[in-house]
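Can't paste images in this forum, so I'm doing it all in text. The chain is below; anyone willing to post the predicted structure tokens underneath?
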Amino acid sequence: MGKKRAELYKKIGINTVKDLLCHYPARYTDYTSPTAIENAVTEENNVIKAVVTKKLPEQRIRKGMTVYKLVITDFSGDMIVTFFNNVYAWNGVKEGEEYLFYGKVTGNFIRKELNSPTIIRVDSDELIMPYYHLTEGLTSKMIQTNVKEALTLFDNFPHEYMPREVLAENKLCSLSYALKNIHFPKDNTALEIAKKRLAFDELFLLQSGLLFLKGRNKSLTGCKMKNTDISEFYHSLPFELTNAQKNAVKDITDDMCGDIPMNRLLQGDVGSGKTAVAAAACYFSKKNGCQSALMAPTEILAFQHYETLNGFLQGLGVTVALLTGSMTAKQKALLKERIKSGEVDVVVGTHALITQSTEFKRLGLVITDEQHRFGVNQRATLAEKGENPHKLVMSATPIPRTMGLVVYGDLDISILNELPKGREPIETYAIKGANLRTRAFSFVKKQLDESRQGYIVCPMIDDSDSGLMAVNSYAKKISDSYFSGYTVGVLHGKMTSAEKDSIMSRFKSGEVQLLVSTTVVEVGVDVPNATVMLIENADRFGLSQLHQLRGRVGRGKYKSYCVLLTENLSDDCRKRLEIMTSTTDGFKISEEDMLLRGCGDFFGESQHGLPPLKLATFDSETLEITQKAAKKTISKDESLETMPQLKKAVNSLFFKESENILN
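Text version of the structure:
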């Protein structure tokens, strides 16, 4: 294709032949079940099968506008078909011949018209036509033409990566058949067969890839540790760890004493004390003569972890350092020398940790926080700084067990399902109706007047046609009225890192009393003095996201509150808010969220660093079937060397997403 079209394809993420073939239709027009003219629904699209009985003379209705009309008929009645400035379509049909017409029907039951329809012959081989997600300048017809050519090329190369026994056991069609019939199905049965195969592929490849990654970790670690006593760590804490925390520490230290590198997930609800567990792991690593590294997705979080870990470990003779991108070149160079020499025991940082110039003397433990914000490659790059170090992944996103089998398929799991002693549950209230906003604001003011701080969360960055006010407009409005005399700050995703860091630092120091933010605050700095959160348009958030947002308060010794405000009075909204006000258990909320929103929509876009699913959904039955098939396949050859096409597909999915399947 030409350069211009290639640039248009690039806009919708199509860079290779594989990308094109995997750009599945968004919808189809089915010409196999036409509607009789008398039953055609006005103001809706219909497929009509009819004979052209008369081609009317052209009409010039004004300068630059010529109208061409046909009269068509079927057994039930007549209809007028109109084309505007399109003599080619008019010339393309013949009187006395039968065609299939598709378009919006107008008029009434006495006289119906069809304007500018798509027309195909009744003997066409393609009676189910695909339509695609597009960008300006690109049409579905263009994509159809290119896909046909790509499918012809596809047949000339070896491409079937699914083991024969998997295809046979699960009654799946070939990849070639699936791709042809997802784009140009010969009938609806063929389309369903194609969808079944391609949806199965997505989950099978995803789980095979995760098992493959897990298998790659079975090489010997260069940092096998001894079961060292760390009771002094427990004695130094100003609080007692929960049983869940103690069990997690045992899981981790047991793993670190093995020959094979630990690859464990520490999954805990907001405020469950994951950082204290990470500190114990770092101390265990130090006692065994090894360094630890903790990578966080933002400088705010990195600084928070640095302060917390330093507080836990400084008195035990552990040197903790912070490495971030905003440090000066001289500061970075000096710190990197200390890391390389082994003078620093624990390094906390952002992506600066994985730059080529960062070297460790003996890296034994790698910890990543909020792992869904890091891709597989970024985690792997940090791990390559040592000799197969132990890996600990921390996540504050509770997800259902079924989801965990997929999302964390390459990890062993430890769960923190208890809150630390003395931590009070957050009281949550749902307020329905616009006229109650003043009451909600009064409640927030009361907290601010008691020298506490608060958040207000808005769903929008920019003002929208939906009537929702954006953060900047909202913050200005309340600063000039309800919260006049209070210090109000604004935080949103379009701000630079420096701007975000600045406003969060001012909020943490207490200079800013009320922070108006989008969901960028969902994973934010720990501010113990923040005791109230008001969430505007709460009906627009998923339950798990509301729970994550709520976790920004209740971080200190003060009683904390979350107020959910909505003008949506529907039954669905009422049910969702009842769940939020009845429990603070993130795992229970995640299960309810999945039931309400459906498996396919549970994660939203681009979460957890996993490849996106186009056709598959996370239903339990399919997950179980595909996981069983993946385990059986990988058990035969963990390296996948005897299955080169499957290995190539897995590598393409996880590491080289733009790799051409035809290479």
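Residues 231-416 form a domain with the Rossmann fold fold (CATH 3.40.50.300). Residues 188-216 form the longest helix (29 residues).
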